Amino acid sequence: MGSVSIERAVLEQLDRVGGRLAQGKALGLLEDIAWPREVEERFFASGEGQLPEVEYRVDRDGLARRAADLRELLRSIDGDAPALGWLRDNVGAQIQATELLAAAGTREFSARSRELYGSARSRFFGGALRNIDLAEHLTERLRVHGWDEASDPEEEPLDAGALREALAARVAARRPPLDIEVALDPRITAKVVAGMSRVRIRPEATFASWEAEGLWHHEVETHALTAHNGAAQPRFSFLRSGGPRTTRTQEGLAIFAELYSRSLSIGRLTRLAERVRLVDMAEQGASFLDLYRYLRERGAERRDAYFDAQRVCRGGLCEGGAPFTKDACYLAGLLEVYAFLAAVLRGGLRDEVELLVCGRIALDDIAVLAELRAAGVLERPRYLPGWLRAWQTLLPYFAFTSFMDGIDLGPVERHFQELLRVAAAARPAAEGKRRRGRPREG
């Protein structure tokens, strides 16, 4: 046991309610609102000019019974201890997720989505900045401002089979071992779909080397890893599946893992920012066709444009005004996770930082989880991602950037304004000369 004690009555409720949550079947929200491949095939066969028709086969009676059982469980929690408040949050979020799925295909789905994930115009920590402001800032900083002769060497993309072999080899070599199957699956619409114990890859998909590296850190080293850590908790195995209340933090962790491992590319970050814009457009009334055409006009490939537009419209209304807002929370989660680490990451807090990956949790859970760990009822995570194992390099990084965060870069940019002017105006010397370089990606 640790240095903090928990009252017996509280501990009994933690065991009882935690056990009930652990026994419950995972909701499978994303699987139930996913569009079948036939919808995509019909869209392109019809000339890309008709709104997709999607039918959501949802067991609403079963979901109503599930919600009623969860409400009964919520009412049974008695007391005001922080750990019991944490239990209420978890049960309440399960109710919200159940009601969200029950509303699939209606305008109410989008309203419930905003309650769980936020929206494109949600604000950070109650301040003035919104998700869309961060997206627009990143888009501006990433767009081409000059002309580079330098370029990356051309490389052959990995096919799905090569990616499967590469990921499977890395999973097999990992210590302690993670029980994860990597398989090809022609039924999925996304390029990659990952769960706790299986990573599925669409057979005809191809991947750049940076994309393959990012998938390892995002899907395996974050999502699968936190699920395995949660499942290994003796008292709180329900942390293997935190539900939508943990999505913002989990996606923020996954994008941070890409960023810190230097596998978050210009194209990838630009696309994440663009998805926030798509959510905003849909919230303002844009239809699936509006989103699709917007992306095509900006150079997106046909299938990429379809996939990003359907991500925003799935579960909601294709005619606009009622989107699925989950894609607005990736950058929000990244900013919140980064801000958390910048604020608390320092010598002597390694145990607390490790709580980020003890299961699928939300940032606001950390204080309660630290209390539970100190009381000896929450175990340390068995698996740590690469960025957290590299504590000796992680701590110096945030020690330095914590000071840089307070520096106004305006005077620095003014100091180098002539360089910025020259770079923006630079072009190859001869119009007819074969260009040796190419514009920056993004």
Provide a descriptive summary of the structure in words:
- The chain is mainly alpha-helical.
- The chain has one domain (1-442).
- Helices cover 55% and strands 3% of the residues.
- The chain is built from 20 helices and five strands.
- The chain has helices spanning 8-23, 29-33, 37-45, 60-75, 82-102, 107-117, 131-142, 160-173, 209-231, 247-260, 266-283, 288-297, 302-313, 329-344, 350-354, 366-374, 386-389, 391-404, 410-415, 417-425, and strands spanning 158-159, 181-184, 192-194, 198-201, 206-207.
- The strands form two sheets. A three-stranded mixed β-sheet has the order 2-4-3, with helices on one face.
- A hairpin with a 3-residue loop joins strand 3 (192-194) and strand 4.
- Helix 1 (8-23) packs parallel to helix 5, helix 9 crosses helix 10 (247-260) and helix 11 (266-283) packs across helix 13.
- The radius of gyration is 23 Å and the shape is globular.
- 36% of the residues are buried.
- Mean pLDDT is 89; it is low at 431-442.
- It holds the Pfam family MATCAP.
- Keywords: Hydrolase, Metalloprotease, Protease.
- It comes from Sorangium cellulosum.
- One of its GO terms (biological process) is regulation of nitric oxide metabolic process.
- Its cofactor is Zn(2+).
